[in-house]
Amino acid sequence: MSMTVNSGSQIQNLSQQLSTGRQINSAADNAAGLGIAQGLSAQERGLNQGTRNTADMQSLVNTAEGALSSINSNLQRLNELALQSGNGIMNDRDRANIQREVDQILDNIQQTSQTTQFNTRNLLDGNATNLHTASSPDGSGMSVSIPGMSLESLGLEGFNVTENFDLSAIHNAMNMVNAARGELGAVSNRMDYVMTSNDITSLNLASARSRIEDTDMARATTELASARVQEQYQLAMQRQDQEQLENQTQRLFTF
Q1: Could you read off the pLDDT of 28-54 as tens digits, one per residue?
Q2: Alpha helices in the chain (DSSP H)
Q3: How far apart are the C-alpha atoms of 88 and 136, rounded to whole Å?
Q4: Is residue 134 within 8 Å of 53, Cβ to Cβ?
Q5: Contact present, 185 and 65 (Cβ < 8 Å)
Q6: Radius of gyration of the chain from Cα atoms?
Q7: What is the model's pTM?
Q8: Are the beta carbons of 105 and 81 closer than 8 angstroms?
Q9: Which of 50, 162, 202, 207 could bridge across to 135 with cysteines, CB 3.0–4.6 Å?
């Protein structure tokens, strides 16, 4: 009888493994294996979240870089207008007309620096400093800082082509913007490497966890078929023993 009970328990266990796809469905199945698998799962999920965090921060960086590209275009046009105004054929009225466009460009630069946002966070007003990226399971990662791009920060506040002006002020502003764009570009590339590394590590952890936790379908199917044959054999032997016992009892009563 105990052999039949053991076969039934084995069949139930194997059936559960096949239905869930896991060979560890409770701590009783493999306490040590469960602990290891849970630890690997925590690391894997931490890496996956770190990848999502890094992708979000990369989107922030790309948003800031796009706004800096717009500011750079404005500075290019501002440089053209300043050069035009410095030409000796221009009179005061001409320079006043050029200044009207200069003022529009300066206003646009200022507005871009004050209104560029990502998830309601201002990016170019000088307050986007030490933005932490939790890219690893332990919460560590790089920090991102974006310099302010207001007219005051760029040294262009009150720039006026109708008066004496310094063309190098525009060039210095361009250098500041281009340096910030270069830094953000390098940060974005680094984030690509971090996400790739996280994905590879997560895949390896998932593979290791699967070897511990998931069911070997071929093995479990074979063992289940074997257990069912064994159970049927045991039941047949029990029926045979029962029939022999009944026959012996009948013969005793017959005599």
Answers
A1: 566 676 678 788 889 999 999 999 999
A2: 2-20, 31-85, 92-115, 151-154, 168-213, 217-254
A3: 60
A4: yes
A5: yes
A6: 37
A7: 0.75
A8: yes
A9: 50
